[in-house]
Amino acid sequence: MKYFWTRFLPSYPKVLLYMLQDTEYKLGRYLRWYHRVSDFRRVMKRRTLDMTNKVRLLLGALCVLAFLVALVVGTMTYWAIATETFELLFISASLLLVSPFILAYGIVAPLFLGWLLIQKPREKMIIATAQKILNQHSAQRIAIVGSFGKTTAKEMLRSVLGEGLRVAATPGNMNTAIGISRFARTLQGNEDVLIFELGEEKVGDVRRLSRLVRPDVAVMTGINEAHLSSFGSLENTVGTIFEIEEFVSPQHLYKNAESPLVKRHKNKSKLWFSKKAAGEWRVSHVSTSIEGTTFNMKRKKDSMQIQTGLIGEHIVGVTAAVAALAHSLGVSVADIERGMRKVRPFEHRMDPRPMHGAWIIDDTYNGNSQGVAAGLAFLKKSGARRRVYVTPGLVEQGSKTQEVHEEIGARIASSVDVVVLMQNSVTEYIKAGLKKRNFKGKLLEVSDPLQFYTNLDQFVAAGDIVLMQNDWTDNYQ
Amino acid sequence: MKKTVAVYFGGRSTEHDISIITALSSVIKPLEMSGQFTVVPVYITKDGRWVSDNLLKDVALFSSGRIDDVVRKTKPVTVTFDGGFRLNGKKIDINFPAMHGSYGEDGSLMGLFRMAGIPFVGADMDASVIAMDKVLAKQVAEANKIPTSKFVFMTRDAFLADQDKETKRVADSLRFPLFVKPAHLGSSIGITRVVDTDELHNALEVAAYYDNKIIVEEAVSNLIEVTIPVMGNKTPSTALVERPLATADEFFDFDNKYIRGGGKKSGAGKYTGAQGYSELPAKLPTGLESNAIKTALAVYKALGFQGTARIDLLIDSKAKKVYFNEVNPLPGSLYAHNWRAAGVSTVELVQDLVHLAEQRHAEQAKLQTTFSSSFLRQF
Amino acid sequence: MKVLVNGQLIEYRKEGGGPAVLLLHGWGATLGTFDQLAAHLVKTGHTVYRFDFPGFGSSPHPGAAWSVGEYVDLTAAFIEKMKIKKLKAVAGHSFGGRVIIKGVATGKLRPERLILMAAAGIRPKPTFKKAAFTAIAKTGKVVTALPGLAGVRQKLQKKLYSAAGSSDYLQAGAMQQIFINTIKEDLTEYLDEITQPTLLVWGEHDTETPLSDGKIMQQHIASAELVVVPQAGHFVYDDDFGASVTAIDRFLI
After folding, report:
1. What pTM was computed for the model?
2. Among candidates A356, A385, A458 on the partner chain, residue whose Cβ is nearest the Cβ of B347
3. ipTM associated with this complex
4. Topology of domain A351-476, per CATH?
């Protein structure tokens, strides 16, 4: 309540829109965030409001709304004083008091109406059209499912298959029904292979998307606690991702043996991949450094020398799976090897860049404990002058938050020389983990991440490797 | 508990503006980033006013010219010494001078801090005084058998009293080409390279315009100019040997040193930054690198340096001889780019410097400076 | 490079070899404005001298309210300091031209030839617009003399002068008094004293020193050739370097 007055600042409407934009206009998350905030001056920390047309329109609406509220309050107050009706004065004062909430909720109404009356019917139509296009398309369809690593698998497949075949893949994070449908409308019709990334947030999602794309082959990258709150339970997550089994025959479903939740599930097939094997292919001579990763694959008389720009041992399994899958689709060994060499690190995913003789590995899109473990494993063996680890911790860990972060702290303690923690609610848990393992290196806590990122050059020296994992957006505290 | 560090910059010096950049980008930022210090900025105006305000940490304040308003509206700083060093009433633990040139790098500020009995970063007063007088620095080096290029010097008064005689004295005792320099100023201001007596006379006039003492040196042939940052108290260590590169001119001019740079890294081993263009590390003929490092450390010790300094050397690449040229008690931007390439981040650099300051202060505190005597009783 | 001239510290450049040519820059500019021209003249076999006038570039303010005469004296002293025996030509732009006109007419500068590029020196006839501005300015001065209005005064001044088109004045800063001293002086009668061959280079669309100034100079100088560069403005040697330098080359043969 101490900061209630900050809701009356002129920047307040902008802050509301910032919150809407940052939650991608998901009203539930927006409102939950809204109720968590006390000081509205401290919301916009990580970036500034991106002035899109939508934002301009909504800002206009908010200003009109604010003006109307002010007009009503003003008129009532004037009337109350003029006629000495103090009840009215009381009403106008209360109105003024609740006016920030009128704005916060008022802005939701046009968004909801727009979604109900315009967006929803239009999306239905787009999906129906896409279904028709996809039903008629003759290409092989590969679906990628899992809680993490989908984009990496997709891009690798696109690069390798693209060496000999005509390939199209869902762009960016377009992994919802509407995203996939929009993608379907861009198809030429003559593609040999279509690659679909299937997103999942709630039970039935994979089934629904599979009906749309009708996959022939699938890759299951792994399962973790992502979107736990919308799934309700981990069983639901696993069940949803395994819905893919209803559409793809067991001998065409590649699954990550290194993901315990996948491995533990009752599996129909044995088409596994890991850093040791992918299906019948044996993997050996694995080597990974800041420059990339190399390994050999062998199956009877066939062999492949894989070399990619991706870094970290955790990508060996999925890389091998992609190579094996491509081979099964008839792509030659030479083409697979060439395609793999073209694979560069993806932006913000174990993405190294040089800085004054040091390396900064940008892994800020990584947001799960498997990724943390993989990144730390790489850093530990990197042989850098100083191994520096920068993280705010992980979001969406639900009831396991404390346990997960103490584990991360313990893992950090045995892997790095310097740890930089972006201060937030989980910092203490990570520190507890560090302490438990008797961390001897340097610990730095940073309260202003932006300031730290922009002055990173002051923090590094030649020979350092700095791994920056995960990045909290403002809508988590 | 965070320690409070006061950072001093600006000052009554020709290098006023450079000092601002040193302080804001290479001292205050990394000190704050280390998470161990509270930083109090102290800006000294060109006319010697002291101002302290947290606003002063923003470089935009200076580049936009709004600084004049802030200086006008802020109360001048009050400093008290009793019960510790206090600035506007706030207790300061360590002073960090980020000043170049006169009234800052030349020992003046160090003298003040010694009187106040507070630890301060960088060279002590005596080494600063020697370093800021190019003649004195060379004389001390010579006395310690460290080779320097042949030189003569004169006071402004002597020059103005009989310009032709003094010019002739120089021309007779040294071999052209020569460098004419004001003896005290930092950077390259007022430095001229001359090839004949006419030019020499003109250059002496210019040097006398800037300073009351002038030094004239023989140019080293087959010249490779290098500079080496050094850090430490009793056991100093060096960063990398760096070779500043001039562009068009044979000579390193002020514009070149401070204005033309500012680009980013361009190609392997070439560094362009606040200090201009340079080769880092310098590619030297065999044997010369270790010789250069040895000379730099010898100079550092001979002149009594502690904290940090940057030693400039002249190398005759054919004769394979290394000459001491001059020393910079507080190199621009702390030469952080060089330390970073040597594996010391800027954050580590400033932390180490603060630590060295505390170490020296503790050592000095152990020395006995007073004793009781019966001297006064006789009066 | 720096040199002391009459106790005044002067930033200068000396480049190339051959007959000497001196270049004098305009108001608000520095010797750097002639980088391209100097390089060209060096290539065609000249020793090119140029310097920053006191108060411009790296030459410090003279410390007193100089007028054109002092700049002439300084230029003459610079020539002497550089031991230039014979000056093949002196070229000046705008304010630099002003210094040349006065210097040559009074016999203090003795070049063999003159190149005047958009030279200043002709005082514009008072127009109605200027008169109106002067009146407004004077009134403004009185009104804003009231206490508490000093800040307003600066802002108004800025608006007024930019409306009147005198941007040089505003940027002059510490040089304001010198600026006023120089523009007050009309050099028309000095032009009649100039006997050396003179090249006048003018931009067709010059708004600072209009082409009409060039024509007046052509009438008054005994032996003057006027080259008008089409499409070019006040910085004629920048706007069309090719055309300007062609005229200069022909003139210097």
Report:
1. 0.75
2. A458
3. 0.79
4. Protein-Tyrosine Phosphatase; Chain A (3.90.190)
